[in-house]
């Protein structure tokens, strides 16, 4: 499998307009002031700062194809890649998402999964977090209009929660290509991680869609100088009398990091270190062979799911993202790729500190950990209301490879070329789907 195919949903495969570089001084003045930042806040600023963030400064973040690709008219893999080469050179964009490359079939599969699972006795309500160009929303609503009972389409509501003003506008334009969709569709321009934006909890059943969202959510970094020392938080701060930034380490005190450490299970490792029968041997070994280590924590994912489970306690969830990334050189479990497109060439950085508004930062999703976070957040939300015990299972969930998901819910023949090659099934080996629905124990 070629490297660019595995990264195709988030990085440009071909020539694109070079991204603007910013002098390092903007970091010290705009991001920091005089205060250090937790790594998650550093990453959030590097990606989403309205003036200097990556998503604010790329010329056109999400590509839109004028028409669907006719896969049955393409001979095979080589011809498909040549076709993509022409498409990328024709469009001034940074990437095409899979929902765009395989429209309408990719979104149709998601719509079918929803239709098979939803309680159709109540009006269907769908939230999409980070709706891109609006293609997924339009295609899902197309599918419901064409395939669902008429009352389902007539009573449905589709809400896009979008942080980008330009993408929010684009989504309305895309969905508005079918005028009747606009009666059922709206865009809320806000940050989904901000609890106040949801205003109040909605007790009704609904669906939440997260496509290529988790990989760009902020993460935190923790550090341990050897095998027996406790984990420490990593902060980013300015180097005095310099334009450079560096890491500093502090004892664990952030509540979100502590909750994430507990879910990951690293706190159990800490307890094991203190046991007398192993601690002595570890101390001797750590002095002889000290080995610093670090781990990336999906605190942005935890924060988002905590908010979603509070705001939408009866939500069903469909998420799709990278399960692993190739050629990662940054240290640590679940480490990201940090890449800059310059003069048509993608350059991977060896440190996340090199991300200065011109770089994409994206993480692999540990889907088993995602499942743990989802179940934890459902319990955490319900326990706050004193409505359930810890032993009550509130979610049913499944993890599927993209090919398995498409074979179960989609029409894989529609993305098959003449010689049998199917890019949707064959080239997205490092992506998965996560489906999670509430159980009958939900009240």
UniProtKB/TrEMBL annotation:
Compartments where located: Mitochondrion
Main location: mitochondrion
Name under which the protein is recorded: Protein arginine methyltransferase NDUFAF7
Keywords recorded for this protein, A-Z: Methyltransferase, Mitochondrion, Transferase
GO MF, one example: protein-arginine omega-N symmetric methyltransferase activity
Enzyme class: transferase
Catalysed transformations (reactions): L-arginyl-[protein] + 2 S-adenosyl-L-methionine = N(omega),N(omega)'-dimethyl-L-arginyl-[protein] + 2 S-adenosyl-L-homocysteine + 2 H(+)
GO cellular component: mitochondrion
Gene3D superfamilies reported for this sequence: 3.40.50.12710
TM helices/strands, residue ranges: none
EC number: 2.1.1.320
SUPFAM superfamilies: S-adenosyl-L-methionine-dependent methyltransferases
Function: Arginine methyltransferase involved in the assembly or stability of mitochondrial NADH:ubiquinone oxidoreductase complex (complex I).
Family: Belongs to the NDUFAF7 family.
Biological process per Gene Ontology, one example term: methylation
Pfam annotation, one family: Methyltransf_28
Source organism per UniProt: Vanilla planifolia (Vanilla)
